[in-house]
Amino acid sequence: MNPVEKLAPGAPPPADFIPLIVPEIRGNEWKYVRECLDTNWVSSVGSYVDRFEKMVAERAGTRYAIATVNGTAALHIALLLAGVQADDEVLVSSLTFIAPANAIRYVGAWPVFIDAEPTYWQIDPAGLVDFIDNSCRWDGESLRNRRTGRRVKAILPVHILGHPVDLDPILEAAAKYSLPVIEDATEGLGARYRGRSLGSVGHVGCFSFNGNKIITTGGGGMLVTDNAEWAARARYLTTQAKDDPIEYVHNAIGYNYRLTNLLAAMGCAQMEQLDMFVEAKRQIARRYREALISLPGIHLPEEADWAFSTFWMYTVLIDEKESRIDSRELLRELAARKIQTRPLWQPIHRSPAHTIADNPSCPNSDALYRQAISLPCSVGLSSSAQNQVVDVLSRLLLRHDVSPV
Ligand SMILES: Cc1ncc(COP(=O)(O)O)c(C=O)c1O
Question: Of the residues 206, 208, 351, which should be mutated to test ligand 1's pocket, given the most ligand atoms within 8 Å of the CB?
Fold first, then answer.
């Protein structure tokens, strides 16, 4: 068991413990949050909400940004904006945290899982285009899955681990059938695809600011878009769909999805440090690369020439045959030495929560899931802590003596 899992909430970690990712709070967070407390502007309106939205829109390069209570809520609203309805299908990555698939179910639609490609571990554009071309038909009005007969209504590529999805082929296929593209950029703030910030390349993008993300508000999210109508609708739906603020008239079912001013204040302070955080993550990735590249049985993450990755979650693959240790055993050995690591998520086509009649096979996602392990990569990871990770990992992979537990 990982040592951190044994901790009571709020308890300090053991001495010398190296966590996977912890927030970095070293800017104006206290100052801005204190200002909210001192002025009583703690709730879901306030100048920090406006400022945070502006900062994220500027960074994403979109005209509009709407703050939400978390990234999953942003995805839920994005699906509603895209017109996804009950019994529609949405093409989505199989190798991802579960939230986008859940959000698809919130609107009563069905996820269709597309496998990952083996190089950058993102949704495979060729597989997605192949599905559209060969497993769907155009009925004159909409694209339909030949097998289920259901309408395919949107595409939801998930940029995982801070590296972009290769979006151009996906956008091209989407344009052919007028399918909206919803970017799950929750792990991709600060990353770029062919020079464009993630979240701004598709029709709508979603960010998360939960505790392990590159910037955090404790919990929070943002929806970004260039579409004025969608932005207004998102603002409406996230604030209980209030049509008359005096008489409290509501013409639609809305949601209480707004971020508080208190959390937005923290978000503003975090955004001020984003460039520094991205550079820190990239430096951690460079150091890991130099130190680990020649070890047997380990494959390091690549950055495509069309990508600017933040290396948000530094993840490697362990080739069990070459290294004679599998990823889970390695995880346990590292945990026993107070180094916290993590496997990737169970691919969603395997998730008991998403057992649908006909889960497609996604062999690349399965293999990546078996082999992947994410290494400590907090923005504030010290070089001595990183050296310690490298040292223990190298000894385990080379089967040299490691200090007994
Ligand atoms: C890929 C992905 N999508 C969606 C989410 C959901 O974000 P949140 O936790 O803010 O709801 C997360 C992170 O938690 C994520 O990693």
Answer: 208
Which residue in this structure is represented by tokens 């792990």?
Answer: 187
Q: What is the pLDDT of residues 271-302, one digit of tens each?
A: 999 999 999 999 999 999 999 999 999 999 99
Q: Is the CB of 158 under 6 A from ligand 1?
A: yes
What lies within 8 Å, CB to CB, of 220 at 6+ separation is 67, 68, 69, 70, 71, 208, 209, 210, 259, 263, 264, 267
Range(s) of the chain covered by CATH 3.90.1150.10 = 274-341+376-398
pLDDT category at 323 given cuts 50, 70, 90 is confident
Q: Is 183 in the pocket of ligand 1 (CB under 6 A)?
A: no
The verdict on the CB of residue 184 being under 6 Å from ligand 1 is yes
Q: pLDDT digit string (tens) for 158-211? A: 999 999 999 999 999 999 999 999 999 999 999 999 999 999 999 999 999 999
The answer to whether the beta carbons of residues 209 and 219 sit under 8 Å apart is yes
Q: Which of 250, 247, 311, 322 is closest to 285 using CA atoms?
A: 311
Chain region(s) in the chain for CATH 3.40.640.10? 29-271
Q: What is the CATH number of domain 29-271?
A: 3.40.640.10
Q: What pLDDT, on the 0 to 100 scale, is given for residue 8?
A: 67
Closest C-alpha residue for ligand 1 atom 8: 71
Alpha helices in 160-256 (DSSP H): 168-176, 228-238
- CATH class of the domain defined by 274-341+376-398: alpha beta
**Which of 56, 183, 186 gets mutated to test ligand 1 (max ligand atoms within 8 A of its CB)?**
186
Whether residue 233 contacts residue 241, with contact meaning beta carbons closer than 8 Å, is answered with no
Report the pLDDT averaged over residues 264-272. 98
Q: How far apart are CA 392 and CA 369, in angstroms?
A: 22
For residue 213, the CA-to-ligand 1 centroid distance in Å is 9
Q: 93 forms bridges with which residues in the sheet? A: 114
